[in-house]
Amino acid sequence: MVGxxxxxxxxxxxxxxxxxxxGGASGTLAVIHLLRSAAASQCxxxxxxxxxxxxxxxxxxxxxxxxxxxxxxxxxxxxxxxGDPGHLMRWADAAGITHDGFLARHAYGRYLRETxxxxxxxxxxxxxxxxxxxxxxxxxxxxxxxxxxxxxADGCIDADAAVLAIGNLPAAPPCPVPQSPRYIADPxxxxxxxxxxxxxxxxxLGTGLTMLDVAIAVxxxxxxxxxxxxxxxxxxxxxHRGQPAAGRTGWLPATTAGAAGPVGLTxxxxxxxxxxxxRPDSWPDVIDxxxxxxxxxxxxxxxxxxxxxxxxxxxxxxxxxxxxPPATARRITExxxxxxxxxxxxxxxxxxxxxxxxxxxxxxxGTSAELTAGWLVNGTGPASDIxxxxxxxLQDLLSSGLxxxxxxxxxxxxxxxxxxxxxxxxxxxxxxxxxxxxRGHWYETTAIPEIRDxxxxxxxxxxxxxxxxxxxxxxx
Length: 476
Hints:
Blueprint: E1 17-21, H1 25-41, E2 45-51, H2 87-94, H3 105-123, E3 127-133, E4 136-141, E5 148-152, E6 155-159, E7 161-164, E8 183-184, E9 202-205, H4 209-220, E10 227-231, H5 265-278, H6 283-290, H7 294-300, H8 303-321, H9 326-337, E11 341-345, E12 347-354, E13 357-364, E14 367-373, E15 375-378, H10 392-400, E16 419-421, E17 427-433, H11 439-442, H12 448-470
Parallel strand pairs: 1-2, 1-7, 2-3, 7-17, 8-15, 9-10, 9-15, 10-11
Antiparallel strand pairs: 4-5, 5-6, 12-13, 13-14, 16-17
Helix pairs in contact: 1-3, 1-12, 4-9
């Protein structure tokens, strides 16, 4: 049963309402740019930022308080403001935060929150924000009044538009896992890792960036704790080597001005390998130079080549693209050299156990081994099939036809502006998304630089649309 309507007082009557669903980095960047665009154009606006955990401005990624959990991208690229690349560095200097080029994630969370607060103050009285702690479970079109009604776990709210800033899909285990407090499905849930440093063995599903942070966290409190990280390839992220080298970053015919039309995966991989071979000591520069072109190249790949990439190439791209900071690399090297972290290649095919512990079977090359663990932590990264999600909001959007999966089922189908496509392929004028849900559309869409630019473009689009609807003589 739906509860009562939420009141937006004292904002009542001051322009249209845009509901931003999700208070993590995507939602925060969306609100910051909505406020800046509304203030610049003097467009009255009310924004409701909805976060289920009340971690507005932090989300999962930046809610950690561990000082050794660092950004995996240099601070110079992590500004929240499109068009102002030095904003974060100036903030860090003013705040007296020392760093080696890679900020602690909790510091970046503070930066996002303070930047949001600054945007709220600067936008008043033209635009205002309400922070709401709740969980959106459904969206419906309104027959009268505002276009949408968002049903919450404890009420409902009407809005003229909604931005789905819901982040990544929750990680899914590779096999059934028994109900046990020893299985940690989400290591970033508040307090999730508190008990895992008790000295008993910890098995982490996955060997990516999440595993690195989990290993550091659980081995800090108890030197007896041993971590076994397991993945199909057994690959760790590569290490950042400092600032990009001066000079060319490699030439790829597929990225030259005027290049258009389909591009094949085999040909594209040959071009990347040739560029790396040309400068083998500067491969990070080739990868970083390719990064801005990835969304366009992804759209030019035939669907069959995209599937081949996801099946056979993606993991190799990820470990070179999403690298670890040098300080993190030193910590991980120390753990491996002292035997406190082992990296295993294989597939986890069975998990059994109870409250006392878990037994995990690992298959590789026709052989099986069993490990006993005090804790099992899922660090596999986002799930890869949105149609299998258990999230009630996504289930509702897909079942009602207001949204549909992208052709690869990595996320939500949308047009180039972020407008969600319904089951018939029509672009919505009221429901939008940005960031990780657009992975099937852009692929490279989970990091701050891409989300920031999407947030700025979406804000301009939404504000222009609101102005057009309320302009005298408009046909809207």
